[in-house]
Amino acid sequence: MRRIIYTSDASPLMTDEKVAAIAEKSRRKNGSMGLTGALSFDKGRFLQLLEGPSEAVTARFEAIRRDARHQNIQIICDVPTNMRNFPKKPMALMLPGEVSEDMHEALSALFDLADEPAAPSRQTLGDLLPRFSELDAA
Asked: Is-contact 110 74, C-beta < 8 A?
């Protein structure tokens, strides 16, 4: 299994409503590919976590790279994993105004990691990712 977390700049006409439609379509596609993850959109930027079989993650991420709605893709991490953060969610949607304060802080920290020149440590990611567990339970 593989996990990718990335940010990208959204096309200028992107809205929360369009992001919700993207998440809904992704739920169907990801479910059929054995993928799980989460999508966030804030201040014109996407943050997405994709996890699942390596080949499926690669195929989905390559499709995202070709999608004109994503520009300036910054990979925060791309690692093998034996555990999913969102085992029940083909695509959870995390909009900052609709999540808890703790999750909003964790989202902000992940967005900030994309702007750092060095890759984040496993400890940093290990501290942030469990803060999203309430999404998988919902």
From this structure: no
pLDDT single digits (tens) 13-71: 999 899 999 989 989 989 899 999 988 888 898 989 999 999 999 999 999 999 999 99
Rg (the chain; Cα; Å): 14
d(CA 133, CA 91) in angstroms, rounded, equals 13
> Bridge-partner residues for 72, per DSSP?
none
Query: Has residue 134 got a pLDDT over 90?
Result: no
pLDDT band at 128 (very low <50, low <70, confident <90, very high): low
Query: Per the structure block, which two tokens stand in for 67?
Result: 């999608």
The whole-angstrom separation of Cα 4 and Cα 80 is 9
3-state secondary structure (DSSP) of residue 97? helix
Our CA dihedral for 57, 60, 63, 68, rounded to 10 degrees, sits at -100
Report the alpha-carbon distance of residue 138 to residue 133 in Å, rounded.
9
10 Å Cβ neighbour count for 104? 18
Q: Provide the CA 136 distance to its chain's centre, in angstroms.
A: 13
Q: Which residues lie closer than 8 Å to 49 by C-beta, 6 or more apart?
A: 3, 4, 5, 37, 38, 85, 86, 129
Q: How many CB atoms lie within 10 A of CB 1?
A: 16
